[in-house]
Amino acid sequence: MSYIIFDPKNPIRVRSLSPLGYYPKHSILLPSGCMFVYDDLIMSAVKIGPPTSHCLTADHYTELEFLTFEEIRFLAAIVLSVHPDDGMAYCYPLFEYKDVPVDLDQTTLYAIGKAQAAELISEAGLNKGTVVPTCAGGPTYETRDVDLNSAAVSEIAQAIDLKDHLLMRGLGCLLRADMCWRHREIAEAAVMLLHVSLDASFQMMLRSLRERGNINPTSRDAGQLLDEVFNPSIETGNYFQDYYEDRIRVIHPFSRLGIFPFAPLAADDYYFLRHALVEVYYWLVTKRKLHPLPPPLNG
Predict the structure, then answer these.
(1) Which among 39, 43, 238, 260 is least surrounded, fewest beta carbons within 10 Å?
(2) Domain residue spans of the chain
């Protein structure tokens, strides 16, 4: 419900990030939001706006989504800034947050973040199973060996349209899939969320085709657009055709494909689909392809 209620006197949302994420080595400072990286605490501080600015109505009410659109934009920009050939970056935002005035310096925000992290282990606020920040007794944070390009994160964040609800749903599911994947017991849910994110990207592809003049685009048309961007030398068929039957088996216990008492999945179903979706969403947001980092210079 965090984006349903907004206090205009507190436009910055401070949120602790769990050591279950895989983070940049150094802080990322953008006009719209920041990630502060310390040895004992990684936290986000993101400027938020009222739900009316995102075309949200009572029909969008939810008790389960805990991130604001602005937080999704900021955290997704971090995810999309890393080509899958260069590994991963992902965040694990915790449920609790604190709204603070806009004119606070980094030192003050850090103190607020540490106090918030300490509250996570209080008897009243502890959610059993929460992996708390290092400063509150949690494990050490993991950071990437190769740092992120802050300019790329900024470019992506600026290009994400908060009024595009398809995009926000797709990016939100991509973020949550990474969180679920950190728990082997519910890893199946990670793949399910990726399929929701895939469907959102499909609808965005159809929308792009309509904008190009195709009044009634099909999955084949979307697949051709995908090939035009990513596979110019081959034809792969319908949009993500190889995942179509997997989606049916994952989502539907009974279908024309049979009865499945559990989803027949492998770890690669997460890694390969996530890999593809990071590239697709980067293109959908920026209209450019995401390229891996060049190899290091010899010597």
Answers:
(1) 39
(2) 12-163, 184-286
Tell me, letter by letter, the H, E, C secondary structure of the chain.
Answer: CCCCCCCCCCCEEEEEECCCCEECCCCEECCCEEEEECCCCEEEEEECCCHHHHCCCHHHCCCCCCCCHHHHHHHHHHHHCCCHHHCCCECCECCCCEEECCCCCHHHHHHHHHHHHHHCCCCCCCCCCCCCCHHHCCCCCEECCCCCCHHHHHHHHHHCCCCCHHHHHHHHHHHHHHHHHCCHHHHHHHHHHHHHHHHHHHHHHHHHHHHCCCCCCCHHHHHHHHHHHHCCCCCCCCCCHHHHHHHHHHHCCEECCEECCCCCCCHHHHHHHHHHHHHHHHHHHHCCCCCCCCCCCCC
At residue 297, the pLDDT reads 63
Task: List the chain residues with pLDDT less than 50.
Answer: 1-7, 9-10, 124, 299
Q: How far is CA 114 from the centre of its chain?
A: 24
Tens of pLDDT, residue by residue over 17-32, are 999 999 999 999 999 9
Give me 264's structure tokens.
């027949």
Strand partners, 22: 90, 142
Q: pTM score > 0.85 for this model?
A: yes
CA distance 73 to 290: 17
